[in-house]
Amino acid sequence: MALVDVSRLPQHVAIIMDGNGRWAQSRGKPRTAGHERGADAVRAIMRAARRLGIPTLTLYAFSEQNWDRPRAEINALVDLLCDCLVSERDELIDNEIRLNAIGRLHKLPTRAQSKLHALMDATASFGGMTMTLALSYGGREELVDAARVLARRVREGSLEPDEIDQAALEASLPSMDCGPVDLLIRTGGEQRISNFLLWGSAYAEFYFTDELWPDFSANSLYCAIRAYQERERRFGLVPGAQHAAATNESRDELERAI
Questions:
Q1: Which of 39, 55, 69, 78 has the largest CB neighbor count within 10 A?
Q2: What percent helix, strand, coil does the chain show, rounded to 5?
Q3: What is the pLDDT of residue 1?
């Protein structure tokens, strides 16, 4: 089992859960069987992240582009989502995990919206961990929606065009409520981010694995975190400068306190 340093955990882990269909097809099963097994992996990773003390976990559950899949598969995915929102309710509440969701949620069927919002309301006050489901989500679509929000504010007179800066745009992105992504994991062997959290992943560390999502385990998560901890995050600075900047900032704060 991979060992991780719990004092240097990523604060926000995002996962592109890829490979459910291929997992099922390689076993001669319908794609829906892969999605069902993938739901078990979600539960295992949620528990592992909670045990480690990772504050934020964001899962790419259904993209805006997934609406183009066969209707039968979409219906199966919606049914699975509804079932999980019922079956996982007690575990989320018992472990004080706040459920959040991002994306064009209004496009989900009414029954899914109802169960989703009910569980989000029931867990809204929890602070143990936040698990965000990206549903009917697309990074480009989120940026377009944010631009529309800012444009309406300009039209209404509550915002000047010159006041639109990175902070203003970021404040209009629901995906940034939990902060930027530290570690982005993609299963299934593909090495792209597929329109996921484009703004929040600007300085994320990427971890790609050939494991299909249904096979992704707690130890798989530990391996990803271990790889993350072996990297130096520079945020555009030269090697060592990030640590020096943090040290100087701490020294300045101490001097101000004195």
A1: 39
A2: 55, 15, 30
A3: 72
Query: Which one of 5, 20, 40, 66 is the catalytic residue?
Result: 66
Q: Residue 109 in contact with residue 142, Cβ under 8 Å?
A: no
Q: Domains for the chain: give ranges and CATH numbers.
A: 8-257 (3.40.1180.10)
Compute φ and ψ for 36, nearest 5 degrees.
-65, -45
CA-CA distance, 123 to 249, in Å (whole number)?
Answer: 36
Cα end-to-end span (Å), the chain: 45
Contact 205, 185 (CB under 8 A): no
Which phi and psi (to 5°) does residue 59 adopt? -115, 130
Cβ neighbour number for residue 118 with a 10 Å cutoff: 14
Q: What angle do CA 201, 206, 211 make, to 5 degrees?
A: 130
Amino acid at 52: L
Q: Express each pLDDT in 43-83 by its tens digit.
A: 999 999 999 999 999 999 999 999 999 999 999 999 999 99
Q: Report whether 4 contacts 221 (CB < 8 A).
A: no
Among 18, 20, 100, 182, the active-site one is 18
Residues of the chain with pLDDT under 50: 246-247, 250-258
90 residue type, one letter: D
Known catalytic residue at 18: yes
Which helix (DSSP H) or strand (DSSP E) does residue 206 occupy?
strand 205-208
Cα(198)–Cα(173) distance, integer angstroms: 11
Instruction: Name, in order, each residue with C-beta under 8 angstroms of 169's C-beta and a sequence gap of 6 or more.
Output: 143, 146, 147, 150, 199
Catalytic residue status for 95: no
Distance CA 130, CA 41 (A): 17
